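Input record, target 12 of the design panel.
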């Protein structure tokens, strides 16, 4: 029996920088992938518990058939009128009932939907499927900027209202000539507001409502040495330290809200009529069967980055890059995943891992 939690990261007024391989400092993603979340948590755990504790935990991940815990990637949430809209990645396959084979006017609108509200995701991929009449009509209306109806009310077209991106000018000095070089760094800021009763308070910074942020799912194994309480304690420390890039500038700081998995999420995870699994995390495994890949629908992306180990002693080295399956990829069976050893050549202090441990949701689609 596993224990599941839903954790929300509330950034308030803090901006964050989530870089991607190859896009430079000028851009920032609006969310964190699962491998980065694992790395940040492991790094914070190592600082709090020490080298022996992290080595023992790595043994659990590498040697036990079931990892101590599984993390999803982080995804956007919006808080509106006392309730949450949680977005999920759209699976890489049309939902049951979607009209395929013709050039429909609404096809562009459907293709542009990279993330779906949980309620729409659940209806399309676990329940009744795509409503050929109502959903088609609303997507068509959306192309004419007239969308109103079930999809709009659920927040299907409002994903990008949850955050804004900014480019902040920075300057660096050449060590030899002291000449200033101007560059820009991209940041993401999630929707927030001052609490109405505190609008005239001098303590405004203590009275902020996070109207949007990031959430993720965590599933603890019954044999895990990491308890939900200890996991949350590390997340609290990580919130004070910050997550992502530009932490020395105060970026990436957050508060956490932890809850048991709500009933609607339990139904989604425990769906029994599925014939495939859709990733809500990154996934890597070696070897992987050819039949599993041949019948899959997937996107691959190269993942790299720099060593951020507390014991690296300031040593700057790039981790080995590897190809990983992205969120929304579909497989005919539940993918498992593993830690990938990405220790760069010449780094001997300890192994460096990237998490390819998967978190997936059951779905029913036409394969």
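The sequence produced for target 12 reads:
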């Amino acid at each position: 029996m596993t224990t599941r939690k839903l954790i929300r990261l509330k950034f308030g007024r803090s901006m964050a920088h989530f870089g991607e391989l190859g896009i430079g400092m000028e851009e920032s993603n609006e969310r964190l992938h699962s491998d980065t979340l694992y790395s940040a948590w492991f790094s914070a755990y190592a600082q709090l518990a020490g080298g022996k504790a992290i080595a023992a935990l790595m043994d659990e991940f590498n040697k036990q058939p079931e990892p101590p815990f599984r993390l999803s990637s982080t995804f956007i949430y919006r808080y509106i009128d006392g309730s949450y809209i949680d977005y999920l990645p759209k699976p890489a396959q049309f939902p049951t009932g979607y009209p395929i084979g013709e050039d429909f006017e609404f096809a562009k609108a459907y293709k542009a939907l990279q993330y779906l509200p949980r309620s729409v995701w659940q209806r399309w991929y676990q329940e009744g499927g795509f409503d050929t009449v109502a959903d088609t009509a609303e997507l068509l209306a959306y192309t004419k900027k007239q969308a109103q109806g079930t999809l709009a009310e659920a927040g299907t077209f409002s994903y990008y209202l949850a955050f804004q991106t900014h480019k902040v000018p920075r300057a660096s000095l050449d060590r030899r000539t002291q000449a200033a070089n101007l560059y820009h760094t991209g940041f993401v800021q999630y929707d927030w507001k001052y609490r109405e009763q505190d609008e005239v308070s001098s303590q405004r910074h203590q009275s902020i409502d996070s109207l949007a942020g990031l959430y993720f799912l965590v599933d603890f194994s019954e044999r895990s040495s990491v308890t939900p309480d200890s996991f949350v304690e590390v997340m609290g420390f990580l919130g004070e330290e910050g997550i992502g890039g530009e932490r020395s500038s105060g970026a990436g700081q957050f508060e956490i809200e932890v809850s048991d998995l709500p009933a609607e999420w339990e139904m989604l995870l425990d769906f029994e009529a599925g014939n495939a699994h859709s990733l809500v995390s990154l996934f890597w495994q070696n070897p992987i069967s050819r039949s599993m890949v041949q019948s899959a629908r997937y996107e691959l992306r190269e993942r790299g980055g720099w060593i951020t180990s507390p014991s690296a002693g300031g040593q700057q080295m790039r981790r080995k890059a590897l190809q990983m399956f992205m969120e929304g990829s579909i497989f005919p069976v539940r993918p498992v995943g593993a830690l990938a050893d990405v220790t760069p050549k010449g780094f001997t202090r300890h192994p460096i891992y990237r998490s390819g441990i998967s978190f997936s949701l059951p779905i029913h689609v036409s394969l």
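The chain is about 25% helix and 25% strand.
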